[in-house]
Every structure is written in C-alpha cells, then in structure tokens.
Design a protein that fits this description.
The protein is mainly alpha-helical. The protein has 16 helices and two strands. The longest helix is centred in the middle third of the chain and has 29 residues.
Length: 315
C-alpha cells in the first residue's frame, strides 16, 4: 500500500513539474543560450583532459596517443622547481586574499556613509574606473611609474633622501607587493559594488532606531551594516578561496624578467611556457589539471567550513 502511495506521489510531482515547465516555457527558452554556452565552451572541451594521462602527439590525435597514466604528474612533483613554483603561487594568492578581500568591504562601508547621493555616485564611479584598465596598460603604467630613471616614485624617494634609483621590477623582494597592491587598486572599487548593493537593502528604520537609542556611526556600522552583508561576504570569500591557485597569468607574465623570475614564476606562467614554448602539451595539461583539482578541494573544504560556522554557503 505504501509503495503504491509513493508511486502516486512521484507521479503527481512529475505531472506538476511538467505543468510548470509548459507554463513557463519562455523562461527556459531564455535559459537555453546560457546552457548551450556552458555545454560548448565549458563541458565539451573537458574531453581534452585525458591528454594529461597520455603522451600526446599531434599527428596521432588524442585517442591515438599512448596512455602513460600518472607519468606527467610524477614528473611535475619530482621537478626541482615544483616547490618553488607552488610556494610562489600560494604566497601571491594568500597575500592577495588577505590584502584584497577586506578593502572592498571597507570601501563599500565608507561610500555608504557618504550623505549626498551625488557625491556618493561620483566616489563610486571614480573607485571602480580602474577596473576597466587592461592588464597590459596597467603593467605599462607601473613600469613607467617605478622606472629607476624617470619614474616619479623614485623621484619622490630621492627627494626624501632615499637612493632614488631602485629598480623595483628587477628586485625580487618587491614583486609580490607590486603585484598585489596594483591588483587591490584596480579591483577594489569594482568589488565594492556588490557590497554597496547589499547595504542598500538594509532597512533605514534600523538606523533610525539605533540613532534614537544614541548609537554612533561606528556602532551602527558594526551592529547593523556589517551583519547585513555577512552572507555576501561569506559567499565571495568561498569563491575567492576556490580560485586560490589561479594567480592571474597576464600580469605575472608581463611583470617577469630574468632578475625576479625566482619569485615571479607561478603555476599559470609555468604551464604556458611548458605547453606553448616547449610544446609539451601533456605535461602542461597535467600541471593545469593538478592546479584545478587543488582549487576544487579548497572550494569544497571552505564551503563546508563556512556552512558550519556561519550557515551561509554555496550549496
């Protein structure tokens, strides 16, 4: 009796789902281009992952190439540069996360406190405009600004009694700082937009009640604004941690030179050089797959930890 009842319930649910799909078929039509895009450009190319486990030869194709198992992964793990590249990648990523994650939040809170809407819009526009500067232009600007001969940074340092001729791009100790803080400057305004949108949903009545109770601006930010954006903060933190190993290839590659290569070589640039400069496609595919697996593991662990601590998570 119970089995028949369960089958009947399942049938009713299926009919209800089909009825909803027929009623909202226009929404599914709008969703179709996004699904096709994902299928063509995200899922279909995944069949090429198998070259990480093969000795890929272009003339033989993917399926005709010889299967070698985990040979390329072992080659990477036993490479003399493995730990150096891994440490470089993690140090830049963690530095970027620690420095870059809280600044958009602080910027959003500051902009949200600006009283006039006109000035608030101007401030928001000015802060997110650097996002639209291309990486090539940004690195070119940095090269000019930090030039040992004509850069205004060295000019200021020299005027203050410093050496005034420091080659920042050629000094390994400065690479991570230049990389991270230029990224913070470029992305903070853009990253603050989502927090400003979340803050706009806070009820003004909460601030009015807190003001009547004698709460200061700092107290209202701490007890009203920040708790209201905590779920957004958690989701974005999970997403940032999920791409922890993905140090931006373009900027790292453009900032590299023979003097700073020991700290500037990261997984993304090493994969490019192995794959497209040395034509070792299987080796580079194995390195990229290893990188993505680590990102996936970090994403799952951080998501589970965030769900346990705050109740907010991606799934």
């Amino acid at each position: 009796m119970s089995a028949a009842k369960n089958e009947k319930i399942k049938s009713l649910r299926l009919n209800h789902t089909l009825m909803l799909m027929r009623r909202n078929y226009m929404l599914y039509i709008f969703l179709l281009p996004a699904l096709l895009y994902l299928a063509l450009f995200s899922y279909a190319p995944m069949y090429g992952i198998q070259i990480a486990f093969k000795n890929f030869v272009a003339s033989q194709g993917i399926f005709g190439s010889k299967w070698v198992g985990f040979k390329w992964f072992e080659t990477f793990f036993h490479s003399p540069r493995f730990w150096q590249i891994l440490v470089n990648t993690l140090s830049v990523s963690l530095y970027m996360l620690v420095a870059g994650f809280p600044i958009p939040i602080i910027l959003a809170l500051v902009i949200n406190c600006i009283p006039g809407t006109g000035f608030k819009r101007v401030a928001q526009t000015v802060t997110y405009m650097p996002h639209f500067i291309s990486i090539v232009v940004l690195v070119g600007m940095m090269s000019v600004f930090f030039s040992p001969r004509s850069g205004f940074i060295n000019t200021i340092i020299g005027a203050l009694g410093g050496p005034g001729d420091t080659y920042f791009f050629g000094t390994p100790e400065y690479f991570r700082h230049l990389y991270v803080w230029s990224g913070v400057w470029q992305s903070s305004g853009w990253g603050s937009i989502i927090y400003i949108a979340a803050l706009s949903g806070v009820s003004p009545e909460l601030h009015e009640s807190a003001t009547l109770d004698g709460a200061t601006r700092i107290q209202r930010i701490w007890y009203i604004d920040i708790p209201s954006i905590v779920p957004t903060m958690v989701i974005l933190l999970i997403l940032n941690c999920g791409s922890l190993m993905n140090v931006g290839f373009e900027k790292a590659f453009l900032m590299q030179n023979s003097l700073n290569l020991d700290v500037a070589e990261v997984i993304s640039t090493y994969t490019y050089k192995i794959g497209l400069q040395h034509f070792e496609y299987s080796y580079s595919a194995a390195i990229g797959l290893f990188n993505n697996i680590i990102n996936f593991i970090i994403l799952v662990l951080v998501n589970r930890f965030a769900k346990k601590i705050s109740g907010s998570s991606l799934w």
